[in-house]
Amino acid sequence: MKKFLFAILAGCSLLAAQANADALSILQNTRIKAQQTVSLSNLSNIFLTAARYLGDNRKYPTLSELNLPVRTLANPYHGLGAEQQIPDKITDANSGYAYFGAALNGTGAVAAPTTTPLAFEKPSIRPDGKVAVLFVSGKVQVVDLKAENCAGVIEALKKEVKNPNAAIWDKLAAAAKAIDEAK
User: Fold this and answer.
1) Which has the higher per-residue pLDDT, 165 or 124?
2) Per-domain residue ranges for the chain?
3) The predicted structure's pLDDT at residue 26
4) What whole-number distance in Å separates Cα of residue 98 and Cα of residue 120?
5) pLDDT tens sequence across 69-109
6) C-alpha span between 77 and 33 (Å, rounded)
7) CA dihedral for 65, 66, 68, 70, sign (positive or negative)
């Protein structure tokens, strides 16, 4: 009888532990989704600002010329609300996004707007291995790349393109490498 009661108690405690683990997993996934929503909104704001600048100046702006609030360019996966660490000034090193506007100037990137990235989340900031990508067309897409750095994201995105324009992708690769080295 004691063995039977012990087995029931052990089974109940295992079920409770599993329920707690499931609840934590659900909470973590919900938090990632909320942060992803913030990130997608930030990428849309980057596109709108870059497109406006492009229309006025006939070139893409640099990261500093975007003149977006620091919070928009900061890493949304560090946490929401008061605990988020927001730097005073955004640079390639501390931005949550890899932005390629200036690198695309003079490359003819508008000829392939649906496959040419304008910006994306730095892969090191996201805990689930996915990356939200903003394309020159304004489309924002979450892709599962499992890349370790910005250069790896560019390589993976290039593999998805049929007949990639070498001039565009060489500039993107060089800019991604510079962003990775800015850490």
Assistant:
1) 165
2) 41-75+86-181
3) 81
4) 5
5) 888 888 777 654 445 567 778 888 888 899 999 999 988 88
6) 10
7) negative
